[in-house]
């Protein structure tokens, strides 16, 4: 807009003098000055809003290139940080520490009732628990724990398509079960307070949202939302607020 005003004003100057041309020039100069003031004011307000948000930021390791997947457990903030690899970091107040310094990358996590499930990437992704005696989940990624800590959802890929699976943490002897049909390529998921699972997936079309029961099979009870181009569902603990992208 500013460039357009400058070019228009230059054209006015280049024109032959005519009656009222001086007045037109004053009008264009006034309009250009007003636009400059409005643009500068908007820029200052925008920057002020950004700086206001800085007070909500938590300190992160200076050597971290990027931090993702923030999660709260007790009085700590957990997140994955890209350092010399991907590591799980725990932040308590001003104290920052690596949860593990192993060679395997830690790409994701889920927390529930004092337990942590961490995705470790070796030759293939494996989900392991911080509680001794828990069996790890082989060939699994993107863990999501239910709010009551009884269920753990995760993804398993087959030929580039991910299927949602479920493990009953309160029934260790039960086998893991798929809860999404193989025709859907699942991306992200979040538990509802009722125990159902909302997830983003796509078949041959654009991604949309689906809701499934906690326990099911390949033809389980799945309901589809009338949404398009929707991913990253996240639900508040009371179920009253949901966020998607």
Q: Biggest sheet: strands side by side, in what order?
A: 1-2-3-4
| Basic shape | elongated
Number of DSSP helical runs = 2
Class by alpha and beta content:
alpha+beta
Domain module tally: 2
Helix and strand pattern: HHEEEEEEEEEEEEEEEEE
Using the CA coordinates, give the radius of gyration: 27 Å
Mean pLDDT: 81
In the CATH hierarchy, the architecture of the largest domain is 6 Propeller
CATH level 1 name of the largest domain: Mainly Beta
Fold-level CATH name of the largest domain: Neuraminidase
Helical amount: 10-25%
Strand content: 35-45%
- Stretches where pLDDT is under 50 for at least 5 consecutive residues are none
* Through-space gap between termini: 31 Å
CATH superfamily heading of the largest domain? TolB, C-terminal domain
* Largest sheet report: 4 strands, antiparallel
Beta strand count: 17
Question: Can you describe this structure?
Answer:
- This protein is α+β, with helices and mostly antiparallel strands.
- The chain has two domains: 2-55; 60-243, 6 Propeller (Neuraminidase), CATH 2.120.10.
- Helices cover 19% and strands 38% of the residues.
- It has helices at residues 2-14, 21-53, and strands at 66-73, 76-82, 86-92, 95-98, 105-112, 115-121, 125-129, 141-145, 151-158, 161-168, 177-178, 185-191, 197-202, 208-212, 222-224, 234-235, 242-243.
- A four-stranded antiparallel β-sheet has the order 1-2-3-4, with no helix packed on it.
- α1 runs antiparallel to α2.
- It starts with a helix and ends with a strand.
């Amino acid at each position: 807009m500013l460039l357009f005003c400058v070019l228009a004003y230059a054209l006015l100057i280049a024109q032959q003098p005519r009656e009222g041309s001086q007045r037109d020039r004053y009008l264009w100069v006034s309009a250009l000055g007003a636009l400059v003031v409005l643009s500068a004011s908007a820029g200052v307000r925008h920057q002020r809003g950004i700086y206001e948000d800085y007070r909500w930021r938590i300190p992160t390791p200076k050597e971290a290139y990027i931090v993702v997947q923030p999660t709260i457990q007790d009085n700590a903030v957990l997140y994955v940080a890209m350092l010399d690899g991907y590591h799980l970091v725990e932040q308590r107040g001003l104290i920052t520490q690596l949860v593990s310094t192993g060679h395997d990358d830690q790409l994701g996590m889920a927390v529930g009732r004092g337990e942590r499930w961490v995705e470790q990437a070796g030759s293939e992704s494996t989900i392991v628990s911080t509680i001794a005696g828990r069996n790890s989940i082989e060939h699994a990624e993107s863990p999501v724990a239910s709010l009551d800590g009884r269920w753990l959802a995760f993804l398993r890929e087959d030929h580039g398509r991910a299927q949602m699976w479920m493990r009953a943490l309160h029934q260790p002897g039960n086998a893991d079960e798929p809860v999404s049909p193989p025709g859907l390529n699942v991306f992200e998921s979040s538990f509802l307070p009722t125990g159902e699972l909302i997830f983003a997936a796509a078949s041959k079309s654009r991604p949309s949202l689906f809701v499934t029961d906690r326990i099911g099979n390949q033809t389980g009870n799945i309901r589809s939302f009338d949404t398009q181009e929707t991913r990253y569902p996240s639900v508040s603990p009371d179920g009253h607020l949901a966020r998607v992208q």
